[in-house]
Amino acid sequence: MHRHRKRRSRPRGRRSVVSGPARPYPGAVPEPSTAPPSPWNIANALTAARIVLVPLFGWLLLRAGGEHDPSRVVAFFVFGVAMLTDRLDGDLARKRGLITDLGKIADPIADKALTGMAFVGLSLLGDLPWWVTVVVLVREWGITLLRFAVIRYGVIPASRGGKLKTALQALALGLYILPLPGWFDPVEATAMAAAVIVTVVTGVDYVVSAVRLRRGSASGPA
């Protein structure tokens, strides 16, 4: 008679465990990195380039002299290139995920340095009333100091109103920098008036945002 050997039954549901890191199967999509972007990127480099162009633009503007000096076209060209980098660095930061806290702070500072140089230069040349320059500069640098004052509670990014303000200032300043004929003066004055009004209104909006940020941080969990 044949004896039946008992087979050892293996427990179901158990599999051999292989030590070592798991290997992704072919065609697997790697998980996106959660690490924050490096501050050393092309967007912040363009912001730095805009800051570098500020003294060059100021030298060209003051060197050009009078309102109808043809060499002011060169100053206008440098101003336009510097303002163009403001649009490029923002688009690159959003499309490539390069938005950093450094960029949120450095970008508006670069804008204020460039436009501030234009306001001061035009007032020194007698083309723009000093009260306009004082109002704009007090608002601009006051908001910059306010951002640093509340930075421990959070970063206040540039708003849509702030971007509109920058665009209007760039347009108005560009018209004043160019050696345009006298009949264009009403257009220049209208553009500058719109820029000043939006500058003041958006400044008030930033103050409100800073107060809300401060109150929200104080009422939140420690």
**Secondary structure: helix percent:** 55-70%
User: How many structural domains can be distinguished in the coordinates?
Assistant: 1
Class of secondary structure makeup = mainly alpha
Please write the CATH class name.
Mainly Alpha
Estimated share of beta-strand residues: under 5%
Q: What general form does the structure show? A: globular
Compute the CA-based radius of gyration: 29 Å
Biggest β-sheet description:
none
Number of helices: 6
Q: H/E order of the elements?
A: HHHHHH
Distance between the termini: 82 Å
Q: Return the CATH architecture.
A: Up-down Bundle
Mean pLDDT: 77
State the total count of DSSP E strands: 0
Show unreliable segments.
28-33
Say which CATH homologous superfamily is assigned: CDP-alcohol phosphotransferase transmembrane (TM) domain
- CATH topology heading: Four Helix Bundle (Hemerythrin (Met), subunit A)
